[in-house]
Specification:
By secondary structure, the chain is mostly helical. The protein has two domains: about 5-25 and about 95-355, no CATH class; about 380-480, no CATH class. It is about 60% helix and about 5% strand. The chain is elongated.
Amino acid sequence: MRATTLSAFLFAFLAAALAMLQAPADSDMFWHLEQGDWTISHGMVLTTDMWSFTRAGATYNTGAWLGDVVMSTAYGPQLVTGTFSGTDSSGLGWLGLDILRAVLVGFAAFFTARITLRVQPHLGWAAVPVLGTILVSRMVWGDRPQLFTLALFPLVLDLLFAWRLEGRTRALVALPFVFVLWANLHNAFVIGLVAVAIFAIDAWLEGERRMRVPALATLVACVVATQLNPAGGGAVARAAAYGALLPGWIVEDRALDVLSGAGLVFATLLLAAIAAAMLRGREGIAARLGAPLLWPGLIAPFTVLALAIQRETPYACMVLAPFVAAMVPDAIGRPRIVAPVVPRVIGLAIVVVLAVALALEAALAAPREPDLGAYPVGAVPLLGSLQGRPHLLNEYDWGGYLIRYAPTYPTFIDGRGEAVFVPDVLSEFQRVVALAPGYRDVLKKWDIALVLLRPDRPLVGALREDGWRVLGEDARWVMLSRP
């Protein structure tokens, strides 16, 4: 076993161990689990809204049906324990999601490290950008199908680098199969297609002639593979436009703050890459890494993407990590090394020990319950005690929680925003909670008789003055009933 492979396993187990300790808390996790449950129980993909009253029966597609199924399977078969007491699992429950998260994060770390160690076998030089990338990736460790994109993007890069830098053409054969899977797990597969296209363009401009046909054929095959999903060709258009319909609404889709923790790591890697490139120039890059056009061709678009949409920052770091690890020491004149070989028995023994340690962590330290500190937990029993099912105006971030734990109360809005509620319902929600002109018309239009919002919403104060009755409240939520 190569020492670089063993090192990649070390990074993978480290990342997985860190991810295992995170309690499930993502606001979209709840409705993804519900969609997965529905798909499994009905044997078909859910294509119409059944959880809101503002969009009831509307056709939609979140582009992650298989990801939802995998999450639901990891959680385990559902046992309904009461209309408003939520559901329990006869499987691993929340521990199943902890394990799934750890596996996918570890998978991402392994291939990120392998890409980097492929061009920089010195563990010391590779460790800093790889560990930095792992830390940046924490921003997308939420328990939803985006974890599959985190895992599959570096796999795609690894296969592409194996072909481009080492001439392993057979690595390209696996790519269309990866994209068939990716296009059904999560709709961000477009960033993978962008990477394949960049490698194909580079092969035609600077690669050997024998690379050109395989490069073009692979790109075409990957594009065709992404059509094999319930949305067909519409999946590509929807994935490419993601975020455009909700500019600034979702924090993860806002521009990157380079003074944040993740932003500083990204900026450091980017500046190091620019400095090394300026010191060594095109000839230096070609001598050290080969494919001098490929590296700026990869770094530039993914840098722009990260700066525009902060949730894409981990993928930009995955592209930067191998370049920084190889070129920075080269720029300061450090000698190159050849990766040593570890006896196979010793390498396998180390991997087994790490796997056992991770299993013990899952058994002894992984969270068994979600972190519900951001949700209106106390409001759920109140909803169950009410007569009838009056229309409820709820917070956007609480919609998924209500879908799972108060399923008989359809939501006004929830985390499926871009797929279901854009533009009119979203704009009406923004108008009414902010007490903007026409807010009363929104309340009347939807016959809102219950409100479950954060106490600091301007609408809450106005409804109190209008005589709406307080049914319950705490520091995080307040529920009001129309008089």
